[in-house]
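Proteins fold reproducibly. Consider a sample protein:
=====
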Amino acid sequence: MARVYADVNALLGPAWYDYESMKIEWNVPDRYEIIQRIGGGKYSDVFEGVDSSNEDAVVIKVLKPVAKRKIKREIKVLRNLSGGPNIVGLVDVVRDHVSRSHSLVMEYVNSSDWRDIYRSLTELEIKQYVFQILRALEFAHSRGIMHRDVKPGNIVFDREQRKLRLIDWGLAEFYHPDTEYPSHVGSRHYKSPELLVAYRTYDYSLDLWSVGCVLAALVFRKEAFFRGRDNEDQLIKIVKILGSDSFENYLYNYNICLVNASDDLLHPYDKQSWARFVASDNRTTATPEAIDLVDKLLRFDHRERLTAAEAMAHTYFNVVRLQTPSNPAECFSDSGFYST
């Protein structure tokens, strides 16, 4: 059972979380014009567009043929989280009757490319960046929702405006205690250990592992901190740093049995000191406070990881909290999280 917000959905009731019985009223897409493709993946193609009714820039996420329940789930999640801090806004849902395609129209953020920023963000910018991700997750978790695919590709960040949004809630799910969820979610370099060992009774804490991976990449100036070739190699790379003892304790405590484990995975590895990753190019960002936060997020045992709220209270973010407006509503403004 999750350490926090375990009973949120039970308290809010089926009207909050039962997306399968939700009826969606689809609008026509006539008012939206596609300008250019900006991305996409297994489940959708994503375009920059414009709303001709007001000339606002929008993002149009054209969904590929998927189960209706998955489409309903994403829309339900986005509507439930509407107005939350640093969570992308859903503008409209449209269906084209000719192509029979369904699209989600989202708020547009002029995003910096991860490859351009992971080596160049200053220490303060890293703190602001990660704090805003944590704010989004704390809000979502408090509403009973796991994101399940936190990664740089799902974080849009306007560096000039210091405006961040957590996007792509297509894999998000409502958390219910003692429920088994599929382990084939998330993206390899940010997958938590529970996903890699197919432990299916997971909770919000898998999102905090992903945040730890993002933070480690930023403070140590790596495009991806754990960079496995496949899921097993990803797990091996984690074990080589966190150590075999912690891994074995984790498997024992949760009665997890590995099937067809390779010799490399079963090989004994000593726990590595985070200090060994400090180098001349990251000394200003890989501070003792940053390393302590990384260490408290990247734990095999999901119950030992900090929650989003606990991470936000870490001393690493002291300067950021001082800049936070006293009125929470000010944090949600379209002009960004911080005023200049």
Q: What stands out?
A: DSSP finds 13 helices and nine strands in the chain.
